């Protein structure tokens, strides 16, 4: 189960190695809800102590949000991208309005 980084305590992450996954959510330009999602493994990191955890919290600010899966030992860094597409249903709504 993925939990927000802020909801995970330092102690739960210490002395573990995590696979860092980057998740790019492609958002619709009209409603800003995801059109699609890409996940890829970027690196692995070791959280040995509270300082490592704090560094992760600082790093997390650069991303839209960060989620942790403690069972799978994975860190998910979420970022947004606007590929210039809109949902087919949003195209209809948009053309009704204009
Ligand atoms: Zn949309």
Task: Characterize the structure shown.
- The chain has three helices and five strands, in the order E-H-E-E-H-E-E-H.
- It is α+β, with helices and mostly antiparallel strands.
- It has one domain.
- A five-stranded mixed sheet has the order 1-4-5-2-3.
- The model has no long low-confidence stretch (mean pLDDT 94).
Write the layout of secondary structure elements.
Blueprint: E1 2-4, H1 10-13, E2 16-27, E3 34-47, H2 50-60, E4 65-69, E5 74-81, H3 88-97
Parallel strand pairs: 2-5
Antiparallel strand pairs: 1-4, 2-3, 4-5
Bound molecules: zinc ion.
Structure summary, number of beta strands: 5
Oligomeric state, counting identical vs distinct chains? single chain
The first-to-last residue Cα distance is: 42 Å
| Biggest sheet statistics | 5 strands, mixed
How big a fraction of the residues is strand? 35-45%
| Secondary-structure content class | alpha+beta
- Give the overall average pLDDT: 94
Helix-residue proportion: 25-40%
Q: Uncertain runs with pLDDT below 50, 5 residues or more? A: none
Order of helices and strands: EHEEHEEH
Overall radius of gyration: 17 Å
| Total domain modules | 1
Shape category: elongated
Question: Ligands bound here?
Answer: zinc ion
Number of helices: 3
Main sheet: strand order: 1-4-5-2-3
